[in-house]
């Protein structure tokens, strides 16, 4: 555990996976200059070495921040996922160490929806196959198996930020939109929610997956589910690689039960652009294979850089955990003229009493106090006069159940 009060230039920030320069610019504008950037993710052993003395880390979807790596992250204050998915981080292990995790829940959603819309239009015409043939010198001019998207039914699995945008765009080109979601959702446009996955599968011409990686979405499209899709239907997955059984999909494509597919995410993805991409889908003509680029547009990456770097800087500067995904959310005002102590503790009886006793013992006046808890941890933020702050900080560090404390001036 580290209990810290640090000058900004001592705060070490490591940014991996080629984040957009807007991330560094945003941090520098807030006074953070001790920043190392790398173009790729790191293998576990190198990540462990690097993370030991880092206070903030920025990653995308390829960096595996598992419990073993986090065990070595003795100084880590927060993780910024410069993407939507946070499945690459062990959120529970991070929480238990008092490490806040932030992401960018919206910034690349439009980019994913646009890519999927384009793929629908191409696949429904059999264009990837015709293009592959043309590259081989084969002139496949034919309307057989080629359709308009207008009037066809799009089935969206996971009607969240991406699924809803895709639905609206698809309606604009005349598609009928239906969706399956485990939650009851507000339907946009003329979309309709169907009660079961099976119903969606058996009544859609195109199926597109937009669910997060969770236990319930693991292999949710396996042999059985694929067999329930309409003959010749199209499958698109730009969510997570663990959601579709690719061997089963390969069989379904080879038997022509599935007419085409677009796959952007894979169970195992190369860690860098220098590694070979291995997949059973390679060589199948009516399959669009993309290297996890659903959210990789200039617009999305620039906005994500600003958004997540801003959240890290804010958490560092004033303790605000607004929109953190694994610790209680506290939105905090400035603490101008005073010092602020941040105290993350195990949610066990007696911690707050002990904090109040410690302050009373030294006659320390609490100018403002904010508290949020969840079932595992509590996050208390206390503003005090700067003259009292070191004493208060020293006392809080000693309280049983303390996970992490920081002092901000
Ligand atoms: N290919 C890429 O580059 C990108 C991929 N993604 C992936 O897309 C996923 C979805 O993104 P958003 O739409 O922003 O997420 P979101 O959280 O807004 O929506 C996800 C929806 O899936 C639903 N859901 C969860 N489990 C389900 C299940 N078992 N069956 C049916 N519905 C279920 C949720 O209720 C929610 O409505 C992300 O979690 C991420 O993994 C996101 C951005 C870029
Ligand atoms: O936002 C997400 O969840 C994505 O999948 C995009 O990941 P990336 O930033 O391209 O590694």
UniProtKB/TrEMBL annotation:
SUPFAM superfamilies documented for this protein: ACT-like, Formate/glycerate dehydrogenase catalytic domain-like, NAD(P)-binding Rossmann-fold domains
What gene name is listed for this protein? serA
Give the species this sequence originates from: Psychrosphaera haliotis
Annotated ranges, domain ACT: 340-409
- Does the record bear Chaperone in its keywords? no
Q: Do the record's keywords include Amino-acid biosynthesis?
A: yes
Which CDD domains does the entry link to? ACT_3PGDH (cd04901), PGDH_3 (cd12176)
Instruction: Output this protein's name.
Output: D-3-phosphoglycerate dehydrogenase
Q: Which GO terms describe its molecular function?
A: (S)-2-hydroxyglutarate dehydrogenase activity; NAD binding; phosphoglycerate dehydrogenase activity
Cite the EC number: 1.1.1.399, 1.1.1.95
- The organism's superkingdom is given as Bacteria
GO biological processes: L-serine biosynthetic process
Function description: Catalyzes the reversible oxidation of 3-phospho-D-glycerate to 3-phosphonooxypyruvate, the first step of the phosphorylated L-serine biosynthesis pathway. Also catalyzes the reversible oxidation of 2-hydroxyglutarate to 2-oxoglutarate.
The membrane-spanning stretches of this chain are: none
Return the Pfam families for the record. Answer: 2-Hacid_dh, 2-Hacid_dh_C, ACT_AHAS_ss
Keywords, sorted A to Z: Amino-acid biosynthesis, NAD, Oxidoreductase, Serine biosynthesis
Q: In which pathway does it act?
A: Amino-acid biosynthesis; L-serine biosynthesis; L-serine from 3-phospho-D-glycerate: step 1/3
Q: Which reaction does it catalyse?
A: (2R)-3-phosphoglycerate + NAD(+) = 3-phosphooxypyruvate + NADH + H(+); (R)-2-hydroxyglutarate + NAD(+) = 2-oxoglutarate + NADH + H(+)
What family does this chain come from, according to its entry? Belongs to the D-isomer specific 2-hydroxyacid dehydrogenase family.
What InterPro entries is this protein classified in?
ACT-like_dom_sf, ACT_dom, AHAS_small-like_ACT, D-iso_2-hydroxyacid_DH_PdxB, D-isomer_2_OHA_DH_cat_dom, D-isomer_DH_CS, D-isomer_DH_CS1, D-isomer_DH_NAD-bd
């Amino acid at each position: 555990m580290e209990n810290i009060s640090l000058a900004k230039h001592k705060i070490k920030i490591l940014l991996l996976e080629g984040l957009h320069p807007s991330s560094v610019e945003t941090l520098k504008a807030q006074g953070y200059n001790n920043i190392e950037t790398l173009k790729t993710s790191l293998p576990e052993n190198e990540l462990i070495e690097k993370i030991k003395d880092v206070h903030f880390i920025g990653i995308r979807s390829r960096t595996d921040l598992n419990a073993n790596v986090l065990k070595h992250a003795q100084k880590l204050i927060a993780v910024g996922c410069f993407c939507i998915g946070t499945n690459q981080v062990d959120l529970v292990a991070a929480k238990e160490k008092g490490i806040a995790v932030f992401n960018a829940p919206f910034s690349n959603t439009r980019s994913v929806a646009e890519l999927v819309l384009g793929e629908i239009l191409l696949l429904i015409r059999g264009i990837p196959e015709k293009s592959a043939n043309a590259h081989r010198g084969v002139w496949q001019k034919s309307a057989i198996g080629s359709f308009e998207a207008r009037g066809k039914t799009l089935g969206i699995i996971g009607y969240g930020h991406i699924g809803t945008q895709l639905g609206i765009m698809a309606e604009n080109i005349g598609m009928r939109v239906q969706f399956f979601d485990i939650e009851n959702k507000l339907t946009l446009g003329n979309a309709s929610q169907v009660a079961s996955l099976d119903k969606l599968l058996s009544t859609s011409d195109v199926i597109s997956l937009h669910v997060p990686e969770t236990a319930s979405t693991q292999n949710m499209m396996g042999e059985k589910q694929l067999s329930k899709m309409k003959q010749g239907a199209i499958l698109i997955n730009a969510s997570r690689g663990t959601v579709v059984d690719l061997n089963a999909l390969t069989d379904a494509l080879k038997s022509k039960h599935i007419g085409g597919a677009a796959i952007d995410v894979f169970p195992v993805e190369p860690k860098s652009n220098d590694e070979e991409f291995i997949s059973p889908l390679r060589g199948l003509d009516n399959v669009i294979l993309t290297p996890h680029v659903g959210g990789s547009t200039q617009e999305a990456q620039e906005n994500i850089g600003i958004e997540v770097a801003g959240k890290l800087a804010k958490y560092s500067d004033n303790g605000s955990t607004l929109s953190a995904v694994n610790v209680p959310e506290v939105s905090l005002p400035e603490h101008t003229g005073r010092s602020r102590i941040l105290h993350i503790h195990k949610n066990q009886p007696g911690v707050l009493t002990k904090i109040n006793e410690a302050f009373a013992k030294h006659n320390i006046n609490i100018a403002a106090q904010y508290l949020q808890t969840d079932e595992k941890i509590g996050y208390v933020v206390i503003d005090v006069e700067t003259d009292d702050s070191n004493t208060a900080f020293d006392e809080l560090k000693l309280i049983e159940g303390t996970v992490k404390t920081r002092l901000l001036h």
